[in-house]
Amino acid sequence: MALDGGRFLGAWRASSGIYDAAVLSHVPIGCNWGAGMLASFSRQQEINHACTILHEREIIFGGESSLERSLLNIASNHNGPVIIVVSGDVPSIIGDDCDAVIRSLNLEKQVALINAPGFMGSMRDGYEDALLDLAELMKERDTIKKSVNLIGFCRDDYKVDADIREIKRLLSCAGIEVNCTISNCSYEEFLGAPAAELNVVIGQGKLLADQMKKEFAIPYIELEYPYGLQNSHRFVERIRDAIDYCDVVQNELDLESYKRIYVYLNKLYGMPVSVIGDHHSQAMAHFLEEDLGFDIKVLSTFDDPSFEDRIRNSNSIMIFGCSFELKIAKYLEVPLVRYVYPVFDRVSFCDAPFAGTRGAQVLIETIVNAALSYGDDYIIRA
Amino acid sequence: MRKTLCEGVFFGLLENINLVHHNFGINCKLSGAVFSVSEIASAVPLIHGPTGCAFHQRLTPWRMFASVCNAESTNLSENDVIYGGERKLREGIMRAYRTYNPSLIVVLPTCVSGLIGDDISGICQDIRSAIRCNIVYVNSEGFAHRGRVMDDNRTNAISSSWAAYQSSATLEHEINGCGQEEVARALVDQLMEEQDVLDDKVNIELNGKCRISFKRRLGEMKRILENIGLGINATLLAGTVDEIKHAPAASINIVTHNRMAAERMKERFGTKIFRKSPNHNGIDGIEKFYIDIASNFGLAGEAESVLKREKEFASDMLKKQRRVFENYNFAIFSQDWLLNPHMARALVDDFGIHLRYFCINTNQLRRMRAISHDNLDSLQSDLAQLFSEWDLDTQIIVNPTHKEIMDAVRNVDCMISNGPMAILHGHEVVSKMIDISSMNYLLLQTSFKGVVEFGQLLALYIKQMPVSKQNNSIISYFNCDPIHYPLISDSSSYASRNIWYSWKSGKYLKVD
Predict the structure, then answer these.
(1) E strand or H helix at A296, and its extent?
(2) Which chain B residues are Cβ-neighbours of A315 within 8 angstroms?
(3) Does B419 touch chain A (CB under 8 A)?
(4) CB pair distance less than 8 Å for B464 and A295
(5) What is the pTM (predicted TM-score) of this model?
(6) Can you tell me the distance from the alpha carbon of A320 to that of A342, in angstroms, rounded to the nearest whole number?
(7) Burial environment of residue A318 by CB neighbours within 10 A (0 to 12, 13 to 18, 19 or more)
(8) Are B47 and B53 in contact (CB under 8 A)?
(9) Average pLDDT over residues B486-506
(10) What is the pLDDT of residue B89?
């Protein structure tokens, strides 16, 4: 089946990436639970979201009073500078006037409203539109030279913190500063995004970049997620070109560590694999093809319902995807490398990125270990 | 098919490490023995030696993907080296018996117990009455490993078997010291019992019981032999202890590996020997294999009609693949004799491939110096003679230069190799490389189904071959040794390798 979280989840993920905001989901409890749960596997200490808990009574009498109560409650209990209301499917159908409720309360705190009924688009749509709505909060800033915003992240992406740290390191080595990572930043950082010289859209967030170009004259470029050595190199070079940065920097491509597993790399060269994911999938496929010489049999995004059939009909012996791919991987008895949201049966909390040049090492280590673990079940049989 | 490929690639990772390390030495005889014992159902190896021997020899090159967990050790210490390890051996046997409740305990002496002179056979004899399980001891001391002439003898045997391709030539070479042969021989001497011989039964030798291909091979063999009018008495060594005991009831041993054990069975019980030959490859070769066996029983006629059906079925299964292959020109690149001319012929005959070039690089074997140049020359001339007699219209290129290889690749659609070809990395033609090292074992199994599966996999690879492939992968940046591929050029590794080669050749090699 096609695998898309829908508009509400996209908007929720964009909003909850502003980590000192209070995200109030105006939905039945299940919607909030699902989104929150998927975000909590590798970030268990922070819950910045709450729910208006629309129940049968609200379906009949409307959810506006519930929203009002919840807003008052959260305004007094949450220390954050902003409340982001993400309104889902039910209020949209029953016709709640959320905007009126927010205006009527006239809270001291900033309140943003994002209408994101799940049935009205994809997770990507939800993410794009939510950022666009939130962009209204931004104000003109003085430009910080050689600085960029990175747009396209979610706070619950697998390996997101380590990846951002690595990307910042790569850019820093190239003399470029990261002004804001969207959406994985504080509210203040988000508001300060217009200070950047360039917006770098990584997979999603293009509407925000368009809007910022129009509003603040900040140009943008679209780049692939920097998986692998060659992708990372291109990533940095494209940004340097875009901001016209001519200083010579040290090329840090170091293959020495890979020699430690060169026999394995030789053996795995040409391995038939399949890749599924969101916007990360194309970049992952490029990395596997370019750096490792893998043979990509199926490359697909989550909205392709034929993905599993296509894998079955290929000779793929390793799958790259999210935790939901475990079933097809188990069915075909091939290893699964989890790299893309949602990953709920693995944790990522240490500084072991998948992005960048350091990430290439971690990824390759993960891939080789996945291949080696194929024999695990044989220990009993043998 | 996917599982076959998974096993080939993923288990191949560790197997490749094993192969690479064979450039620097060989595994201990003990690990070969541990593997053989692990093949026998309900048998447990008892390693009579220091703890270190039992620690790492359980990771045996024959099944790197699954170490042998059910094993015991006597953990000999310094005190035992002085005063003897016999007490610990008795305790170890009893512990193995209580812990695993096995049908068979196989005592495997190590270098230490071999040197201190424990009376292992006496203790085994003595303790037999105290336990309700069989005990066997093996000459598994590590210092008595394979000799330096082994590679040369093997090459000589291969050459002879190629030259005598019309007959059932066999690999007559010494493999004493691998550990497996010693276990098999010990079982013949100490476990097997005199039986009434059944005229229509054979023993077959198969190993690798936990691999996916094992059951398939065994199933196919059983079916074909039964249809011919023969039955399998025992599967050696991957059978039960009871099967092994009753092995002498068979008229013939079908030998693929443990030649000396078979000789010993012949000596002790009169069991005849049928040896699998290198030319028992490919569909015609497999047919010949069974007809040769059946001839020993006067059943050649029956076998012919059975095999006709089997061959027709296999050929039918391959029809679709042959249609794929006929659109391509092929070259083969081999660095050893695994891709031998019989295999090449099977590729031509069974799959109908147009084989334009057969490139063979003997430099690695020459560099080892453990193989005489006479034998290598003889292999080369045999290869040429066979191709000429078979009228294969294939150009043989011995030790091709870089240019010759690149020209050959450019002139074909696919370059089949038994390992990735370093020389192609960094060039656009790398997309034509099909590394069959993960699946070529299917061709060596004397199995129609194996041949069919190989053909299906090869066709799949070809159909899904990328039009162009990135040629700047990480490995393309490595400075690979041009001769000992896939080794990376490294002076210290080179020196280490030469020490091993020096021992094998008995000559001191200078580091270039």
Answers:
(1) strand A295-301
(2) 1-2, 5, 457, 460-461, 464
(3) yes
(4) yes
(5) 0.84
(6) 12
(7) buried
(8) yes
(9) 76
(10) 96
